[in-house]
Amino acid sequence: MTVTPLTTTPEITPVQLSAAAVAKKRLSSPWASLAAIVIAILWTLPTFGLLLSSFRPELAIKRTGWWTFFTDPTVTLDNYRAVFDSDSGVNLGTYFINSLMICIPSVLIPLSLAALAAYAFAWINFRGKNILFVAVFALQIVPLQVTLIPLLTIFGKVGIAGTFWPLWLAHTTFALPLAIYLLHNFIKEIPATLIEAARMDGAGHVAIFFKVMLPLLTPALAAFGIFQFLWVWNDLLVSLVFAGGGDAVAPITLQLANLTGTRGTAWHLLASGTFVSIIVPVTVFLLLQRYFVRGLLAGSVKG
Amino acid sequence: MFDTANNTPEKLLQMLAALLLFGAVVGVVLFLASRVRGKRSDNLVGYLYLLPVVLLLAVGLVYPGLRTIYESFLDAQGKAFIGVDNYKTIFTDGDLLTVLGNTVVWVLLVPPLATGIGLVYAILVDKSRFESFAKALIFLPMAISMVAAGVIWKFMYEYRVNQPNVKQIGLINQIIVWLGGDPVQLLITDTGKLNSLLLIVVFIWIQAGFAMTILSAAIKAIPDEIIEAARLDGVNPWSMFVKITLPSVRTSIVVVLTTLAIGTLKVFDVVRTMTGGNFKTSVIANEFYSQLIRADNQGLAAALAVVLFILVIPIIVYNIRQVRQEA
């Protein structure tokens, strides 16, 4: 489901004075700044507390609050060592690799399939096009819960349960309606003259797709790719249902979720584990903020 | 430091094999498409390009969706037909009514509060010197997994027994103690739906960044002339907000509210991570999972999924119409 077309650029709108700015200027009492600072602190403090704790010794975390760090600063990397160590039974390294193994195909496959389909919907005239497009568009409303039980049966019958395949296939399928819709919106904005010109030169649909479309599509592909990557990386429901227990194919979020159940008081492991699991999304966020925001906004109703 | 089991190369090979297989499928499609000539070529190429997608969607989305609707009329094992009994259970069973009630509270609270906070914050930091940094702080919770967010807040809510030599390690309980109160088992206490409300706080914390980003973009899109005119008329800040800002971003507000409502109806990770749906905190999407995996009641799980589906449809339709209007 889409909220904003991928072409929207929320950040770059140079305006001298917005209504809000005027309102704020007049309001520019210290109260307004204070309110902003209070919200910012409220939104940062919980993460900060756990981050700080992840560097405190196990006993310190269990006996005193993280705010005592400022009067008794002791720092250790033991917690991070512990979550990667097989002795602790947490073994996050394995799950980290699993997450990557799940994510890469789950991004590349739907992205290429959706690009092909979006091109077909936008620039090829074939019979039944409109009905098919509306059908794909409408599929965005299906919550993934509705599909999980029969998929579980299907994957069991085909004999791929417990491998990466159910995860790849499920993530690919769930991504398609939104991806096709967004890429279609983007592709149909490409001037028809470009395609006509290529056709005049004798290019077929395959050549046009690769030589004309793909280079122009890059920003949209990047935005959706990042969104899909993070959606898969952060997913819990799909992996809970299809990856089951054990460390064979389970992703890092699943292991973290399991830890909160089985080792709910082992805060030294939970703290460092949490930050190992979010290092990837946070890095992506910081490096690719613009694409990231666009992609996330475009796909915010997915699932 | 990466103490991974030795099967990493094997996994890598599996992944490469999958990518190769998929590449081969696309290659065949493109090869065939490039071979097609003649009058009907557009039809054929169109179908070829769509073939993999249509197959996946038919097997992975359409069939399972219809199948789930059918299974919602079957018993726990998915064998005997029991009519609408599963739906009757959902709307009469005490525990499930709590689940529905919780879902209603979630949907009533999260969208307006997250939107309100997002809007206020967007206005407050608009055009300030630290705007992008200030926005990143609020937006970051949206980037991390809800499982991680759940752990972060579980630590905030952590409870330690109330004994003289035991110190609180959760900030909220420490604040209660500093204020002279007794620590509370925050996530277990369901009096006045306290624990559910605390989970809702977490979801608002996650979603406010989304509201802020959309509304901030909408605010920046208000034409200067309107603002300038209003300013020359000596409009005070409050009426500027009520008469200019609010009406200008109305559509965006509706889009944000509906988007958040849909996300809230499907909320699962937060509840599952923080309470597992225990202590009367379950919501529909979590109950679906519990019934499917823990209670092994496939029929009831299917019915819950269908209920979720039915609840989501009108909001999504409304959301899409608003988005189209705006575009």
TrEMBL record, chain A:
It is a multi-pass membrane protein. Gene3D superfamilies: MetI-like. The chain crosses the membrane at residues 31-52, 95-124, 131-155, 167-187, 208-233, 266-288. Residues 96-288 form the ABC transmembrane type-1 domain. Keywords: Cell membrane, Membrane, Transmembrane, Transmembrane helix, Transport. One of its GO terms (biological process) is transmembrane transport. It is found in: Cell membrane. Its main location: membrane. The keyword Lyase does not apply. GO terms for cellular component: plasma membrane. Pfam families: BPD_transp_1 (PF00528). CDD domains: TM_PBP2 (cd06261). Belongs to the binding-protein-dependent transport system permease family. This is Sugar ABC transporter permease.
TrEMBL record, chain B:
The keyword Endoplasmic reticulum does not apply. It is found in: Cell membrane. It is a multi-pass membrane protein. InterPro entries: ABC_transporter_permease (IPR051393), MetI-like (IPR000515), MetI-like_sf (IPR035906). The keyword Cell membrane applies. Residues 100-319 form the ABC transmembrane type-1 domain. This is ABC transmembrane type-1 domain-containing protein. The lineage of its organism: Bacteria, Bacillati, Actinomycetota, Actinomycetes, Micromonosporales.
